[in-house]
Design a protein that fits this description.
Elements (H helix, E strand, L loop, with lengths): L5 H20 L8 E4 L14 E5 L11 E5 L6 E10 L6 E5 L11 E2 L3 E9 L2 H9 L1 H28 L22
Helix pairs in contact: 2-3
């Protein structure tokens, strides 16, 4: 059996490293509608702070006990991801009682169906830390500014070298002389 060469292994590793970030940036590529970085450990050990949840918009009628949903908090613009522990449809609108797996008590207020963003389809461990770092000033500097600067400097240097003829690797013409052996008798 032929062993894969280093370039093939490198390409596979690169694709596998990039795929989770593609799923976060374009959740539609994996059949979902949204993605969020989890900021707390309220759902640990299953979902931890720094994980990314991939959320799909579903009908509130299809949400049941045991589903993990992401919803808009009534108190702020914050998004919360918790497990549904009870469903109430007594007054015509469905409401969901939720609880973080790591929390001892259920959330204080039921979540109206209108606040539900969707159901968590799956989560990707740890990449939220990288995404959060990349969103910081230092992350912007390391992931955007420095690589862009290095590329610009490299291009300017290449243009300068080409314009001045420096680094030319054109072959020079040689003529036979007495130092070359032509295989004949002298």
């Amino acid at each position: 059996m032929k062993t894969p060469d280093l370039e093939t292994v490198g390409a596979i590793v690169l694709v596998l490293a990039v795929l989770p970030f593609v799923a976060y940036a374009v959740p539609q590529a994996v059949g979902a509608t949204n993605s969020y970085v989890v900021l707390s450990d309220s759902m640990s050990p299953e979902i931890r702070a720094g994980d990314v949840v991939i959320v799909d918009d579903v009908s509130s009628d299809s949400i049941g006990v045991g589903d993990v949903i992401t919803y808009e908090s009534a108190d702020s613009d914050e998004r919360i991801t918790h497990r549904v522990v009870a469903v109430d449809a007594s007054d015509g609108e469905r409401r969901f009682e939720t609880k973080g797996d790591a929390n001892e008590e259920a959330d204080p207020r039921p979540v109206p169906a209108s606040a539900v963003i969707g159901v968590v389809q799956f989560h990707i461990p740890l990449i939220g830390h990288v995404i959060s770092f990349a969103s910081s000033d230092l992350g912007l500097l390391l992931f955007v500014v420095l690589p862009a600067s290095a590329l610009a400097i490299s291009e300017v240097y290449s243009l300068y070298r080409d314009a001045t003829g420096g680094g030319s690797t054109e072959p020079t013409e040689t003529t036979p002389d007495s130092r070359q052996d032509h295989g004949g008798d002298d």
